[in-house]
Specification:
This protein is an alpha+beta fold. It contains five helices and four strands. It has a four-stranded antiparallel beta sheet. The longest helix has 28 residues, at 158-185.
């Protein structure tokens, strides 16, 4: 809002000569867009799980054999099916989400696209699994991957992928932050 006129007109950026509204880009979105990334991750996750729940019966796979299949699974444990009591599998993600929100607020000054994407993916993925636990009492997993010739199988979902990528990007952000502080001090 323009503070001089008090009307809802966007302020001009004195460096670019463009209005702030005109400088809305993907890059700008990612600088402050952890909530947007989180909502997109949550939406993609929930739509994919809905598609699986409506298209497959529990235990059904497409194709029947193979290294990578779509298999509907009810996961009562944690990420990637790690066993855990239901209270832990609901409360632990909520505690970690709160921690990530705190860290996001702590480092929001950095305008880091990497941090925003990392936190957005982590929170969106975590919320996707929390929504399932609250609504269904379990998480719908469906990406069925066979490793080591089928000896090891793991089943996961889009939320799990978002969580893992978010954690990896978060680690990269802190590694870069640490390297930058070492370079400045040394």
């Amino acid at each position: 809002m323009n503070t001089e006129t008090g009307y809802g007109q966007p302020e001009m950026n004195h460096f670019t000569g463009r209005s702030e509204a005109a400088s809305f880009t993907l890059s700008n979105l990612l600088q402050k867009g952890a909530p947007i990334v989180a909502l997109l991750a949550l939406e993609v996750d929930q739509i994919s799980k809905l598609w699986v729940r409506e298209g497959l019966i529990l235990g059904e796979s497409i194709p029947q054999e193979g290294v990578l299949r779509i298999t509907r699974v009810a996961n009562h444990g944690m990420i990637f099916g790690v066993p855990a009591p239901s209270a832990v599998s609901l409360l632990l993600p909520l505690i970690v989400i709160a921690l990530f929100v705190y860290l996001y607020r702590l480092y929001v000054f950095s305008d880091s696209k990497l941090l925003n994407v990392a936190i957005g993916l982590f929170i969106g993925g975590s919320l996707g699994n929390v929504v399932d636990r609250i609504a269904f009492g379990h998480v719908t997993d469906f990406v069925d991957l066979a490793l080591r010739g089928g000896v090891v199988r793991t089943t996961f979902n889009i939320a799990d992928v978002c969580i893992i990528i978010g954690i990896i990007l978060f680690g990269i952000f802190f590694l870069r932050l640490r390297l930058t502080s070492v370079e400045k001090s040394g």
